[in-house]
Design brief:
Elements: E1 7-11, E2 17-22, E3 28-35, H1 49-56, H2 66-74, E4 79-84, E5 89-96, H3 100-112, H4 118-135, H5 139-151, H6 165-170, H7 173-183, E6 190-195, H8 199-210, E7 244-252, H9 260-271, H10 273-286, E8 290-299, E9 304-312, H11 317-333, H12 338-355, H13 359-366
Parallel strand pairs: 2-6
Antiparallel strand pairs: 1-2, 3-5, 3-6, 4-5, 7-9, 8-9
Helix pairs in contact: 1-7, 3-8, 9-10, 10-11
C-alpha cells in the first residue's frame, strides 16, 4: 500500500508541488496534476472560456504542431489530455517508462507554450457547439444544469463549464491567449508521477521542463454563495422526449468541513451502495418508477451540494419526487441500522485498496 514513506514530495521555486511514487511492477508511468485555473476565473459573458483553452493547448505548441503532437503521443501508444472544471485545469498522461521523458516534455510545452492555431480555434469551436447542442437536447444534462443554475443564480457555480452557444461563438483567439497568460501558472499547481521511474530522475526531469516557468498568483476565491430561501422549483419542457429526468437537492458541506466524511457515508447509504442505495431500492426496485436513481455528494473547496437524480416516465414524476424526498427524510429522522452503516463503511474502505492497486488510482488519490 502506498504511504508517506514511499512518496517523495518536492516544491519547486516557482511553487509547483511535485509528488513521485515508484512502482516497478510494470514499465508504465502515469502523470496527473492540475493548475489552479478554472471556470471561476472567466467572466459570465465568456462562459466556457476555461474549457475552450484546455481543449486548445493540445492543438499545437511552440515545439509541436498538431501533427507532431499526435505523433509524439499516439505514435508510441501514449495518452495525454487536458480538461477544465470550476476550480482547476486537470491534466493526465500515460506512457511506457521509456517514453516518459518525451511525454513530459510534450505536456510541459502544451501547458506552457500553446500557440492556439487559428484553424484549430475554429475547429474546436465547431466541436463545442455540436456538444452544446447535444447537451441541450439531453434531458438528464438539462435537468442537472438547471439544478445548479437554480441553486447558484448569477454565480460561477451555476454556469455550465462547457459554456453556451452564444458565449462560445463570441470567444475569439485573443481571448484564449489572454486567459492562458493570465491563469496558467505553476503557483498552486500539483504534478504527480507514479510508476516505473526513479524518484531522483523524475524530479530532475520535472525541474528541467517546469522549473523556469513563471506566472502570476491566482486569486482562488469565488463570490459568496447567497443562501436559498424556501423551496425552488424549475421545469423545462423538451419536445419529443419520452423520459423525464429529475434532480433535487440542497446545499451541503464543503470539502474542508469536518462533516465531509459523515455526509459521504450518508450519501453512500442514500444512493450509492449496492443497487444505488435506498433510492434505488425504493424508487426503482420496489415502486418501479425509475430507469435509474442515485444520489451524489458534490463538495467543492468553498461550497457543497447533496443531490438525488432519477430518470422516469413523465407520468411518474410526482410519485418519484415523493419517494426521493421520503428517503431523504427517513435518513434524517431515523437512526441507520448498524448493519447497513457497517456495510456502507466497508464499501468505502474496501474501494480504496482496489484504487491504490493502479498507478492511475494512486495518482488520483494523491491529488
Amino acid at each position: 500500500m502506498p504511504g508517506p514513506a514511499d512518496i517523495a514530495r518536492a516544491v519547486l521555486d516557482n511553487g509547483l508541488v511535485v509528488l513521485v511514487r515508484e512502482n516497478h511492477a510494470a514499465p508504465v508511468v502515469v502523470v496527473d496534476g492540475y493548475l489552479s485555473s478554472g471556470a471561476i476565473h472567466e467572466p459570465a459573458e465568456q462562459a466556457g472560456l476555461a474549457s475552450f483553452v484546455a481543449n486548445m493547448v493540445t492543438r499545437g505548441s511552440a515545439h509541436y504542431d498538431f501533427d507532431q503532437f499526435n505523433e509524439a503521443v499516439e505514435g508510441v501508444g501514449a495518452s495525454l489530455s487536458v480538461n477544465a472544471d470550476d476550480h482547476t485545469t486537470a491534466f493526465g498522461a500515460t506512457s511506457l517508462s521509456e517514453d516518459f521523458p518525451t511525454l513530459l516534455g510534450v505536456l510541459a510545452d502544451a501547458l506552457r507554450r500553446p500557440t492556439f492555431p487559428a484553424e484549430h480555434v475554429n475547429r474546436v469551436r465547431g466541436q463545442k457547439l455540436v456538444y452544446i447542442q447535444e447537451r441541450d437536447e439531453d434531458t438528464a444534462q438539462v435537468a442537472m444544469q438547471n439544478f445548479y443554475a437554480t441553486l447558484y443564480p448569477n454565480h460561477p457555480y451555476g454556469r455550465a463549464t462547457g459554456g453556451y452557444s452564444d458565449t462560445i461563438r463570441a470567444i475569439q483567439r485573443q481571448d484564449l491567449v489572454d486567459f492562458h497568460a493570465r491563469t496558467y501558472t505553476p503557483n498552486g499547481a500539483i504534478l504527480v508521477v507514479t510508476g516505473d521511474v526513479e524518484t531522483a530522475a523524475a524530479l530532475d526531469l520535472v525541474h528541467a521542463h517546469f522549473g523556469d516557468w513563471q506566472g502570476p498568483k491566482l486569486d482562488a476565491g469565488v463570490p459568496p454563495v447567497a443562501p436559498l430561501n424556501g423551496i425552488h422549483r424549475e421545469a423545462r419542457l423538451l419536445h419529443g422526449k419520452f423520459q423525464a429526468d429529475i434532480v433535487l437537492g440542497c446545499p451541503a458541506v464543503a470539502r474542508p468541513h469536518p462533516d465531509f466524511y459523515a455526509v459521504r457515508v450518508a450519501n453512500t447509504i442514500l444512493g450509492r451502495f449496492g443497487m444505488m442505495g435506498r433510492l434505488g431500492e425504493r424508487v426503482r426496485e420496489q415502486q418501479g418508477l425509475a430507469y435509474y436513481a442515485y444520489s451524489s455528494q458534490d463538495a467543492g473547496p468553498q461550497a457543497g451540494v447533496w443531490l438525488a437524480a432519477a430518470g422516469v416516465n413523465p407520468a411518474n414524476v410526482g410519485q418519484a419526487v415523493a419517494g426521493i424526498l421520503a428517503e431523504f427524510t427517513r435518513l434524517g429522522q431515523e437512526p441507520v441500522p448498524a448493519a447497513e452503516l457497517a456495510d456502507s463503511q466497508a464499501y468505502l474502505t474496501g474501494v480504496l485498496p482496489l484504487t491504490l492497486e493502479t498507478n492511475e488510482g494512486v495518482a488520483s488519490t494523491l491529488l
